[in-house]
Each structure stands twice: as C-alpha cells, then as structure tokens.
Amino acid sequence: xxxxxxxxxxxxxxxxxxxxxxxxxxxxxxxxxxxxxxxxxxxxxxxxxxxxxxxxxxxxxxxxxxxxxxxxxxxxxxxxxxxxxxxxxxxxxxxxxxxxxxxxxxxxxxxxxxxxxxxxxxxxxxxxxxxxxxxxxxxxxxxxxxxxxx
Length: 150
Prior knowledge:
By secondary structure, the protein is α/β, with parallel strands linked by helices. It is 44% helix and 23% strand.
C-alpha cells in the first residue's frame, strides 16, 4: 500500500507570547530532533504559512491577536482537512475544547499541562499520521514527501 515518505518534516508553532512560542519550539526540537520547527505569532500568519511551507502538524494557541486560533484552525482545515492541529490554551473550560474539536482540532492541551502532555500527544499524532490507512490517503505532496510503496 502506498504511504508518504517524509522529506519535509516541519511542525508549525503558533503563539503570540514569545516566551511560550520559544518554550514550545524548544521542547519539540529537543524531543523530536528529526523535525524542523517554524514559529509564527498570529492566526493569519499560520494560515499563510501552511500554504507556503509543507507542514506535518500545527500547535496552535487559541488566544491570538487578529483571528483567533479557533478561526485559524477552521481556515486551515478547510484547505488541509487531514493536517493535525493541536490546540494550546490557558482555558480549561469545556466550551473551548468543544469549539476546538468542532473546527477539526486533533487534540486540546492546556498550558498548565503542556509540559507533561504536549510532546506525548504530538508523538502519537505524528506516528498515526504516517502509519494509518487514513494517512495513506493524504496527498503526500502537501507534506513535502512523495508516494512510495513499502
């Protein structure tokens, strides 16, 4: 069965707070050294970045200046419905989680628990992305890879 052979392995981190953005990017780079990390601070930049750079996953803050992380996720998922988006937020209320899932987020992580939860969730999502039949239906060119059998 064909699957994606990864050539580009960029994870996009979107957060308006420079310290959080750097912390998340550093944690991902350390835990997942085979992945490149690109960072942006606004929802509009995230939407633009995924159309210009092959991205394998997005870590998206909800509270962003301009369009919210929820709206940015909705726009990204309209164009790239299979792209995993992990929402990152200070909000622990169920409504934020429900709104995130409604627009297609793959997971929801609070900033309070991100030190414990973000990397394991990201690892599971990335592993599933390249091993499932669902992932094999992806247009690999969107991920910067090629179709191969094996």
